[in-house]
Design brief:
Blueprint lengths: L2 H4 L2 E9 L2 E6 L7 E4 L4 E4 L5 E4 L5 E3 L7 E4 L3 E3 L13 E3 L1 E8 L8 E6 L5 E8 L4 E10 L6 E6 L4 E2 L4 E2 L10 E8 L5 E9 L5 E12 L22 E3 L3 E4 L10 E9 L7 E9 L2 E8 L2 E7 L2 E7 L9 E8 L3 E5 L2 E6 L12 E3 L12 E9 L5 H8 L1
Length: about 400
């Protein structure tokens, strides 16, 4: 028998509808994931275009990928107003002129603006109030015109001065297409009115194309401490919130074997995740098989309230794709990652009477430590696999 024959749950981000991410196995739909997100969101589609998806529709994203992945993001808001309208009065300008809707933007429509500087000291900025002593990420999309360098600055008007070092971002842009640049910074003790300059005294004149401005408060929801830009949130006259994405499936007691099995996932953390970012199989926090991030990659096998394996930071955090598998059985527990067995345990124990019946993006199936990252595939087996099979599964 092949691994494909043996797998009980196989989920990939290839087919979905509002509220559902379909699983390939079982084909009965028993293990199709339930998806909730009480707002629209955006994704990059297979043509490389940013598009909006409706509430509860999974974000099946192709950013830097040839195949889709399922993005799971925490709640974020964009506080940068008129994110696509640089000709709006919300942007103060000095020696900068804006030609609205000059070229095709990353969303595939002709709504990106051309900015032309007419002096070496040209400036353009939007003033936004920020909270004191917080982490933020400011991002936008840029395409080169005739300018040979572009200066940026984030400057607090209440005495904190520069948030992060003012400097150039030309080197981060693409010579031929659109690129997203971002700046993460920590505010000072004053906060308040802050100027965000995408153009600031570059010392050169010329043109540049800008679109899709976003300012996010990192840590704005339940332990979210991610320090990179998340999916684009368009705004006009008011800030806009993208709600948290949640995924789960209950009623799987006929598929999940609480005594033995394998949980496998192909995942990545494209941004620094929350301190705890966990998903897995569970009945409660007393019986569960979990993986994710907790001061590095994390695995946990708990039966009847006892940790048979609890490993924190067993691999250093990075932003690469990884295939991770947890083999669990009393006396025979192991973690494989990218074709290598990294963690083992011979601890013994048996689950309590209630079987594991839930697959979810939270700790122990309760509303805690939601997983935040990207997923290419999820697999569940109801028996343990051999080392040769685990090698093949994670390579």
């Amino acid at each position: 028998m092949s691994l494909l024959d043996d797998v009980k749950i196989l989920t990939t981000p290839n087919a979905s509808k509002a509220g559902t991410l379909y699983s390939i196995k079982p084909d009965s739909g028993t293990a199709d994931l339930d998806i909730t997100r009480a707002s629209t969101a955006t994704r990059v589609n297979s043509s490389g275009i940013i598009e909006t998806v409706a509430a509860n529709v999974p974000q099946l994203d192709y950013t830097d990928e040839t195949c889709p992945c399922f993005i799971i993001e925490q709640q974020r808001a964009n506080y940068h107003l008129y994110s696509e309208e640089l000709d709006n009065a919300a942007y103060s300008k000095s020696d900068v002129s804006v030609s609205a809707d000059a070229i095709t933007s990353p969303d595939g429509t002709t709504n990106a603006d051309e900015c032309t500087t007419t002096s070496n000291f040209a400036q353009m900025y939007q003033t936004i109030s920020v909270l004191a002593n917080k982490n933020y990420t400011w991002s936008f999309y840029v395409k080169r015109g005739t300018m040979t360098d572009v200066g940026q600055q984030i400057f607090n008007m209440n005495g904190d001065g520069d948030y992060g070092a003012a400097g150039k971002y030309f080197s981060q842009t693409s010579a031929t297409g659109w690129a997203r640049v971002s700046f993460t910074f920590t505010t000072g003790s004053n906060g308040g009115a802050t100027r965000f300059y995408p153009i600031n005294a570059s010392g050169v004149t010329g043109t540049i194309y800008l679109w899709g401005f976003q300012l996010e408060l990192n840590g704005s929801s339940g332990g979210d401490t991610g320090l990179q830009a998340t999916s684009y949130i368009p705004t006009t006259s008011a800030f806009v919130t993208r709600n948290v994405t949640e995924w789960s499936k209950t009623g799987l007691s006929s598929i999940i074997n609480p005594l033995e099995g394998v949980l496998m996932a192909e995942i990545k953390f494209p941004w620094e995740p929350p301190n705890q970012s966990i998903f897995g199989l569970s009945q409660s926090t007393s019986n569960m098989v979990q993986m994710g991030y907790w001061s590095g990659f994390f695995v946990n096998v708990t039966m009847n309230g006892s940790h048979l394996l609890f490993s924190l930071g067993f691999a250093t955090f990075d932003t690469d794709w990884h295939k991770i598998a947890i083999k669990y059985k009393s006396g025979d527990i192991a973690v494989w990652m990218d074709g290598v067995e990294l963690v083992t345990s011979s601890a013994t124990g048996t689950p309590s009477a209630s079987p594991m019946d839930k697959f979810s993006g939270t700790y122990g199936g309760i509303n805690l430590w939601r997983f935040e990252g990207k997923i290419k595939q999820l697999q569940v087996y109801d028996t343990i696999l051999t080392d040769a099979q685990l090698l093949a599964l994670t390579t």
